[in-house]
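During the first year of the project, the team set up a workflow for recording each protein of interest as an amino acid sequence followed immediately by a discrete structure-token representation. This format lets reviewers and collaborators read both layers of information side by side without switching files. As required by the reporting guidelines, we include two representative entries from the current panel. The first entry is reproduced here exactly as it appears in our internal archive.
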Amino acid sequence: MKENTGRIDALLNGVESLKMSNSVGSLDGEFGVDGSRAGGGGNSKSVVAAVGFAMMFGAAGLGAMVMKWHMRPKDWEAK
């Protein structure tokens, strides 16, 4: 029965190292030795920034249209 303890220990060590790994599957942390970030992730940040700027400019344009609508003359009629 002592023959299988090595196999069980090996399985448990594998499970422990899986539990220790981070979200990008690395055991050395978020940053590597050379200072680069593991997994990149820069592309998704630029997409979020671009969408944010587009929403900001869209809201500014919509606000300008509402201001122009409220500042129209009282005798103005839609044709």
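The second entry, processed by the same pipeline in the following quarter, appears below.
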Amino acid sequence: MALYVNTAEPEKALRAFNASVGNIDQPHDGARWLRPKNSDYFTHADPEWAYKSWVLPSVRQGSLMFNIIRPEDRYVSVKAYAAYHAELVGTLMDAGLAAPLDIKMSSRCADGDLNA
């Protein structure tokens, strides 16, 4: 269940998104996502959803893709997918990007997702 953000400025969208990501050991006020030091993966900052899944962003030509990566000890529930996708979209909408965003989500595992 990937989230695809089609935009003319995917690198700029990722930089804006990263402003909402805090260090997992020292989260800043307003952090919506948490990332371990020296990692590309991040998790939800809300204690209800933290560590239920990991998200891996990647820049593609004309798009920014967010893949869901399951924790080693469990599968990702449909509710967790929904919470992560909703927070991803909300974070992108709050990022104040000038370029229009065309956001699409897959309803099944997509290339790059790890939930098996």
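For the second entry, the following points were noted during internal review. The CA atoms of residues 10 and 58 lie 9 Å apart. Helices lie at 10-18, 78-94. Both points are flagged for discussion at the upcoming steering committee meeting.
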